[in-house]
């Protein structure tokens, strides 16, 4: 007589159930909204701490990385959306466009990416790293913290010909049009421009405004006369066009409302900044941020809110993008 073996169906069904449950969970995650807060979960639980550590070391090594990365994030989001396309290297990439030639901090993003590829291979996008790094650099300069939604994918296209960014001589009307095209309103425009509180600009970008405004042979009349010789000394007419000047005189590198107060007294370095005070539509917003007009606006809170909105511009999801292994090149 053959041997009888007791068969327990749970031995087959339990492992099968576990596999099916795991598969269902993974598929369900595909349909959850992205980007979102806490997107990576257990797949890369320490993503934010890794980026924050890299940001801290690079900030203390060179504080200029703070405005550099904040500007890079802005330039990324305003061209093809927040997809890390500005990070791609190549002969005709966005990095080669004139407004992007002075971008700095690419090494910071690559360093964070290298560490994340060790901790969580092929999981975290370069676009997400840039968004997190921008937030963390702002915090180190005394600015606000905000929750960054994650789950962006990296774009595969980066063309210099696509780069059409707000310019240093833009009127308020032109700036409003450019921001509205990205679903950002006039208050977002003023608040995000105030990120220049930690920014700098090359002399070649604005020098004519202090010497020969619109070929008049004189400085822009909206500039405070006492401010003109100060900038002229920093940016001589025949001096180095690449020399950089703080956009927030007297409070360089500190996230505060000093930049806005400088506009109030005609000490804006860029024409596109100073018009925010002279224009009747944007001036009340500046006044509210300075506590000069009711209802008041808290600059830190409003900056965080506008940065959150900006970070969601035209994000890539699904088949639109990828998770790059190296931030400077597509897979």
Automatic annotation (TrEMBL):
Record bears the keyword Disulfide bond: yes
Residues that coordinate or bind heme b: 196
Cofactor annotation comment: Binds 2 calcium ions per subunit.
Domain Plant heme peroxidase family profile: start-end pairs: 34-331
Enzyme Commission (EC) number: 1.11.1.7
UniProt site (Transition state stabilizer): 71
Annotated compartments: Secreted
Keywords attached to this entry: Calcium, Disulfide bond, Glycoprotein, Heme, Hydrogen peroxide, Iron, Metal-binding, Oxidoreductase, Peroxidase, Secreted, Signal
Residues engaged in binding Ca(2+) 1: 76, 79, 81, 83, 85, 94
Disulfides per UniProt: 44-120, 77-82, 126-327, 203-235
GO cellular component terms listed in the entry, alphabetical order: extracellular region
Binding annotation for substrate: 166
CDD domains the record matches: secretory_peroxidase
GO biological process: hydrogen peroxide catabolic process; response to oxidative stress
Entry similarity comment: Belongs to the peroxidase family. Ascorbate peroxidase subfamily. Belongs to the peroxidase family. Classical plant (class III) peroxidase subfamily.
Protein name: Peroxidase
């Amino acid at each position: 007589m053959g041997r009888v073996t007791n068969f327990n169906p749970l031995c087959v069904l339990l492992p099968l159930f576990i596999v099916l449950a795991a598969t269902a969970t993974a598929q369900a995650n595909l349909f959850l909204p992205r980007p979102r807060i806490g997107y990576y979960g257990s797949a890369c639980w320490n993503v934010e701490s890794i980026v924050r550590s890299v940001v801290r070391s690079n900030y203390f090594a060179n504080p200029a990385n703070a405005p550099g990365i904040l500007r890079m994030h802005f330039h990324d989001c305003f061209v093809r959306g927040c997809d890390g396309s500005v990070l791609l290297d190549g002969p005709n990439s966005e990095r080669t466009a004139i407004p992007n030639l002075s971008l700095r901090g690419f090494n910071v993003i690559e360093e964070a990416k290298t560490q994340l590829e060790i901790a969580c291979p092929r999981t975290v996008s370069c676009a997400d790293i840039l968004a997190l790094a921008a937030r963390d650099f702002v915090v180190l300069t005394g600015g606000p913290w905000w929750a960054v939604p994650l789950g962006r994918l990296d774009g595969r296209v980066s063309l210099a010909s696509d780069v059409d960014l707000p310019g240093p001589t833009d009127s308020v009307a032109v700036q409003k049009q450019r921001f509205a095209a990205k679903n950002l309103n006039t208050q977002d425009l003023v608040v995000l421009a105030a990120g220049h509180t930690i920014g700098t600009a090359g002399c070649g970008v604005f020098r004519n405004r202090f010497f020969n405004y619109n070929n008049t042979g004189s400085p822009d009349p909206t500039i405070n006369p006492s401010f003109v010789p100060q900038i002229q000394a920093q940016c001589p007419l025949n001096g180095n066009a690449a020399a950089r000047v703080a956009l927030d005189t007297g409070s360089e590198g500190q996230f505060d409302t000093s930049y806005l107060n400088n506009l109030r007294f005609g000490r804006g370095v860029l024409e596109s900044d100073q018009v925010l005070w002279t224009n009747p539509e944007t001036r009340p917003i500046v006044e509210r941020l300075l506590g000069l007009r009711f209802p008041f606006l808290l600059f830190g809170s409003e900056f965080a809110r506008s940065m959150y909105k900006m970070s969601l511009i035209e994000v890539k999801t699904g088949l639109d993008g990828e998770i790059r292994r190296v931030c400077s090149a597509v897979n």
